[in-house]
Amino acid sequence: MPAPIEWRQVWIIAAKEWRDRLRNRWVLAVAAVFAVFALAIAYFGAVQQGQVGFHGVDATIASLASLVIYLVPLIALLLGYDAIVGERERGALELLLSMPISRLEVLCGKYLGLAAALTTATALGFGVGLLPLSSELTVGEGERYALFVASAVLMGMAFLSVAVLVSVIARDRVRASGAALALWFFFVLVFDLLLMGALVLSQGGLSSGAFAALLMLNPADVFRLLNVFSSDQAQGMYGLATVMPPAWTQPAVLLAVMLGWIVVPFYFAHRRFR
Amino acid sequence: MTSTHVEPGGAAVSLAGVGQRFGAVTALHEVTLDIARGEMFGLIGHNGAGKSTLFKLMLGLITPSSGTLHVLGQPTGAPAFRQARRRIGYLPENFVTYDNLSGREVLHLFADLKRVPRTACPALLEQVGLAGAADRPVHGYSKGMRQRLGLAQALLGEPDLIFLDEPTNGLDPQGIADFYAILRAVRARGATIVITSHILAEIQDRVDRLVIMHGGRIAAQGTLAQLRSGMALRLGVVATIAEPDQAAALVAFAAVAALPGDGSGAPTLEREGTRFDVRCAAADKLAVLAALLPHARDIALHEPTLEQVFLGYGGAYAGSH
After folding, report:
1. Could you tell me which CATH class the domain B234-303 is placed in?
2. Is the distance from CB of B67 to CB of B96 less than 8 angstroms?
């Protein structure tokens, strides 16, 4: 029977990982990028319509979501691919594992520390980015924006979980970084194209239920759906809203799928890291 | 709660028929070995002889493919081995750690993981000579300083069992002397030390017992004296004998050489000026000394070095497998 997890050991590793990202200014740099984008999109998001200035939180979220879908997965994958393989390659993992700490505790500690760094950067960046507009936000708009940031964090954690799995499987850092970039390319750029291709080839044979289920195979799409279906105005901006079966559009269901995207890759990472 | 206490005199490490396979490759063949509590134990062998695999097994980093392995009374795969790990120190061959942290922070991290109070760290940093550099980032440390930090880390919590893999790598002569002085103090409190080194001269007079690994097997084990006698290596007696005394010395040596020996061969002599270089079996050592001593101005006895023993066993083992 495996030993029960000692959370004290997990927090020691997590705190170290988090402090490392603070100290090397990773958190600050990512937060600055998010803040600049959030501010720019909030002000200039409607410039194509000949308008400049803040035009409501829903429009801002819709514009930001398109950006976040590219940025957050990339940042999360680059943050996590090195977690285990990097330590193994440097030779530090052997010493760490000779300590009274289990492999699961190491993995949990690494993941939670990196997730905390990603959460801090995302929340800080998007929070600070919208701070100048805070006086124009209603409470409801503030809540919707907070939910958007939370969903971005969850998507980041899902991709971080995938990155940790890559880090456990990869034989060296070069292969791990290649795999991380390939996964970003697949989930963010290729997946939707394949799905559209499947839709066209099936000539209507693909039911909306099957289409929705396929969308769940990509955490970036789950993030998009979470934001589309949590706002009436955003629903109107996306054609997707009309074809999705209601059962798949419940925020609770989408949230559960996103949590699955966090737990399942991590579970396989743990199995592989034994 | 399972106790990890080892009875005094009991084995700190016990391997019974331990084998390790990596796919089609057998890294270790049924190794049986006991390392007694309080012992300083050497582990030597060529690269690829199985030392690293043995270290990883003893540290519980890998599970043996066959056989049983107990460290500090616990099977290494058992959940209770976690408790035993708090009483184990390990210094890897190249102490690689978190370069962005200071030496003190690195030590704090490992102290936290081992549940050793951080208050123990300053004394350890002082002991390894890093007190002045404790707050500098590790990326600025020399290789020797890193090894010293690694030793401090291995000594956290006054472990009962310490594994040292090529521990003096990168240390200067003073550093090596300091290192072994620290080890003497560690031994004095009864800790067991398992050490591996390619610098055999460094450990030959410091270990109580040792094993010679070859091809994933134990080629020989015992004290250095046992290993020497097992190889029947001849020792050297070098005497300086002045010209007038040489004739008498030769007569005395001839008498010894004519004695019936134990079958390991009669003593041989090579002369060069005043230098008499005698090779003889350990059993003839006293007789040779007695023959040459009355005529010699100076005399020295050269026991076979660990390196000669190691090469002898390595050669013998390779020949038999």
Report:
1. alpha beta
2. no
Which of A13, A89, A94, A104 to substitute to test the interface with B, most B CBs within 10 Å?
Answer: A94
- Read off the pLDDT band of B2 (50, 70, 90): very low
Sequence-separated (6 or more) residues with CB below 8 Å from residue B235 = B279, B280, B281, B282, B285, B301, B302, B303, B304
Give residue limits of the domains in chain B. 27-223, 234-303
For chain A, the domains span 17-130+138-272
Query: Edge-to-edge strand order for the sheet containing B74-75?
Result: B25-36, B11-22, B66-71, B74-75
More confident of the two residues A171 and B261: A171
Mutate to test the interface with A, among B56, B94, B96, B115 (most CBs of A within 10 A): B96
Burial string for B13-31 (b: 16+ CB within 10 Å, else e) reads: bbbeebbbeeeeebbbbbb
Cβ–Cβ of A95/B92 closer than 8 Å?
yes
Is residue A266 a contact partner of residue A164, using CB atoms and an 8 Å limit?
A: yes
pLDDT tens-digit readout, A110-123 = 999 999 999 999 99
Do A92 and B98 lie within an 8 Å CB cutoff? yes
Beta strands in B23-124 (DSSP E): 25-36, 40-45, 66-71, 74-75, 88-91
Name, of A19-33, A46-60, A229-243, the range with top average pLDDT. A19-33
| B93 to chain A: closest CA residue | A91
- Across the interface, do A95 and B94 touch by the CB < 8 Å criterion? no
Average pLDDT, chain B: 88
| pTM for the full predicted model | 0.86
Same fold, B27-223 and B234-303: no
Any idea which fold B27-223 has?
A: Rossmann fold (3.40.50)
| Alpha carbon of A164: minimum distance to chain B alpha carbons (Å) | 19
List pLDDT tens digits, range B29-85.
999 999 999 999 999 988 888 888 999 999 999 999 999 999 999 999 888 898 899
